[in-house]
Amino acid sequence: MGWKNRSKREVTVLPLLNRRIAAWSLAVFSMTAMSANAGLLPERVGRAAQERIAAGTYQTLVFGVVEGDKSEVVAFGRLDNGGTPDGETVYEIGSITKTFTATLLARAVLSGRVTLDTRVTQLLPDFKIPSRGTKEITLGDLATHRSGLPFMPSDLLPSDPANPFADYDAMKLKDFLARYELPREPGASYEYSNVGLGLLGYVLMELEHTPYDVLASEEILKPLGMTMSGTVFTDAMRAHLASGHDITGKAAKNWDLGALAGAGAIRSTADDLLRYVKANMGIDQSPLADAMKLAQRPREMAKTMRIGLVWLTTNKGIVWHNGLTGGYTSFLGFTAEARRAVVILTNRVTDLDDLGFATLDANAPLAPVVPSAMLDDYVGTYKLADKFLLKTFRVNDVLFVQATGQAAIPVFPSPPTEFFNKVVGFTLKGDHLETQITGQPAFPVFASAKDKFFLKVVDAQVDFERDAGGKIVAIVLHQNGLDMRAPRMTTER
Known about the structure:
The protein is an alpha+beta fold and 493 residues long. The chain has 2 domains: 91-360, DD-peptidase/beta-lactamase superfamily (Beta-lactamase, 3-Layer(aba) Sandwich); 372-490, Lipocalin, CATH 2.40.128. The chain is built from 11 helices and 26 strands. It has helices at 43-55, 97-110, 120-123, 139-143, 170-179, 194-208, 212-221, 235-239, 270-281, 289-296, 353-360; strands spanning 31-33, 60-67, 70-77, 91-92, 131-132, 135-136, 244-245, 251-252, 267-268, 300-302, 305-307, 312-314, 318-324, 329-335, 340-346, 380-385, 388-395, 398-403, 408-413, 424-429, 432-437, 445-449, 452-455, 460-466, 472-479, 482-490. A hairpin with a 4-residue loop joins strand 23 and strand 24. Helix 2 packs across helix 6 (194-208) and helix 2 (97-110) packs across helix 10 (289-296). The longest helix is centred in the middle third of the chain and has 15 residues, at 194-208. It starts with 30 loop residues before the first strand and ends with a strand.
């Protein structure tokens, strides 16, 4: 999924996702169809995109849509310079980079140089790779998020929190791995790990004796004609860059991924990603076809999704991945029968997944809209235990929940699409609530109905309780079989 960040010392990077709810008729949007094959974007998705652009949820949205042998790019919004985005506008694609890393691994497997059972220690003899019992981490474990490695390295202490991975070099990765103790045997269970995919990218660099940017370019980007993509900005890419924005809409720095490049470093465009997705679908023939099919093939199951080498497949047969950096969000998916595909890019830290799934599946829900004024009903302080409070507050049109001594969690409306990467959870310990945070200091909770919110990445729900008169009187947190009720103490406006 997307990038998130925390260390032993809390580092303020960027919270996930945003929904700005406002009267869209008061804002101005623009839409540009970039091909003659108009009409491939479903009408309801186009309406939702227009509404969200006008409401300020996104600054820009660029869709690349494939239907059979036709494709188009449709763009919404305005860039910082007032221009209109198009198929050549450059965005960071975050964790969609992982699918490129998976393709590189698949090529190495098909060439006979490695297998999915090759142990990482065989390829990095100078590294102390953590193991447990008799089990050692394999390349397949890394690619299927079953290595036992954490979401993020615990020693991430960036000199620049706005570009948190820029100085995370090979030596820091080596030191982290030497000290880390696996909580379970490799292969035992799924846990989404940016460390694992960053390590996989590094292993492949060492195998080929080639930097990741050169490896990705020579093996994938150039063969597919992706001339406006890469981990390093060319002059042309810089000239077409959409400046990134954080959850509040403030300007965000571009991220440099250091030794973890294989987990999220690529920047690209809708035009180039259409080339990439068509190759993955087999619509456009390429020398990468066999490797791409190998990477897509589902191997493991977690809840309602299966995972291949990085690629996720839903129970409806949609193959997909998304991405997030400090100022950008992305989605790429296609149907298993290779008839329909979508690429979505935005220069805002804001969820895109419902738009992606709704483009591919006519029955997939779009996010419900919670009127801005309704958020005021939830603002206040709630008592979970004697010395443990939950405070809800608004920043512009975003509602946050913050527990005593912990980071604020933004809550947003979104359809209850099932995901399974474990990022954040709550556990009641004595008289206080502990938060399991393996990523950023702020994490999203989503609304499935009035007064009901849920964590998209774990099985947890937050309900607001009303009295007979309709007034909010409590928060109830549901997780791990527990119902933890926090009565409202104050109302803050």
